[in-house]
């Protein structure tokens, strides 16, 4: 994995900043067609989390790199953990952070199949703990429109315009030739959980990667950073915008 994805903080760095909100990228290790890497969802989650950490006073954590990718099991290289395991990992991380004085955790999810993360946040919130899941579908929709992404969120399901654009911007060296002619549309996926991805795509792609660009990727991330302001205020009661100096009192 690219070492730039792992924060270089020392313990003293964390102590001096004293941030009370941590950001945890959660991705997956699953097929993304022949042109995007297995680590795509982790790379996307890390790109979003890094954009947030550059704009807000948060403690950036290293990513969880394997998630719930059972629907991609038909392709070589895909690795999954159970929903129970992912639930426990995130719970344990949140508990550990609270013991060290970090009171709130934002889970930045890069893989739609990590459904259990929503349950983790719901259950933790019911116990009075401060957790949030980001980005929401509404945040992605706002980002899609701002970046000029043509493909709808329904159509852009996997390895499509959004993911290709973010990687072309953040990690172009990880994108291989072929995305320009890999479009595959399968909007009716009502039996996905029963039949898995292979019932809807031979290549592993569902979306229009041919429309991806680095410029769109940059705007997608900038929009998500703006959207994070509401999430940050919800957890801290502090209003911060991306134009403010990151490193405030929260």
How does this model look, in words?
The chain is of the alpha/beta class. 40% of the residues lie in helices and 8% in strands. It has 8 helices and 4 strands. Helix 2 crosses helix 6 (161-170). The protein is globular, with a radius of gyration of 18 Å. It starts with 10 loop residues before the first helix and ends in a 14-residue tail after the last helix.
Question: Key terms for this structure?
Answer:
250 residues, alpha/beta, 8 helices, 4 strands, globular, disordered C terminus
The count of DSSP E runs of length 2 or more, i.e. the number of strands, is 4
Strand content: 5-15%
Secondary-structure element pattern, one letter each: HEHEHEHEHHHH
Mean pLDDT over all positions: 94
The neighbouring-strand order within the major sheet is: 2-1-3-4
Biggest β-sheet, characterized?
4 strands, parallel
Question: Count of helices?
Answer: 8
């Amino acid at each position: 994995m690219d070492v730039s994805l792992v924060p270089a903080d020392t313990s003293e760095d964390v102590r001096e900043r004293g941030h009370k909100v941590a950001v945890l990228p959660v991705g997956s290790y699953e097929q993304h067609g022949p042109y995007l890497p297995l680590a795509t969802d982790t790379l996307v989650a890390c790109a979003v989390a890094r954009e947030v950490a550059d704009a807000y006073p948060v403690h950036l954590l290293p990513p969880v790199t394997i998630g719930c990718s059972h629907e991609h099991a038909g392709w070589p290289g895909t690795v999954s953990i159970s929903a129970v395991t992912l639930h426990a990992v995130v719970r344990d991380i949140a508990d550990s952070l609270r013991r060290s004085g970090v009171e709130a955790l934002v889970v930045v999810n890069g893989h739609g199949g990590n459904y259990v993360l929503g349950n983790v946040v719901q259950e933790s919130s019911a116990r009075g703990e401060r957790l949030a899941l980001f980005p929401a579908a509404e945040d992605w929709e706002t980002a899609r429109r701002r970046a000029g992404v043509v493909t709808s969120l329904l159509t852009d399901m996997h390895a499509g315009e959004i993911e290709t654009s973010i990687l072309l911007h953040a990690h172009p060296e990880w994108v291989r030739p072929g995305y320009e002619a890999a479009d595959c549309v399968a909007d009716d996926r009502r039996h996905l959980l029963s039949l898995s991805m292979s019932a809807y795509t031979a290549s592993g792609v569902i979306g229009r990667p041919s429309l991806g660009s680095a410029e769109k990727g940059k705007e997608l991330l900038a929009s998500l950073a703006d959207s994070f302001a509401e999430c940050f205020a919800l957890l801290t009661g502090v209003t911060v915008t991306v134009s403010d100096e990151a490193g405030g009192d929260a």
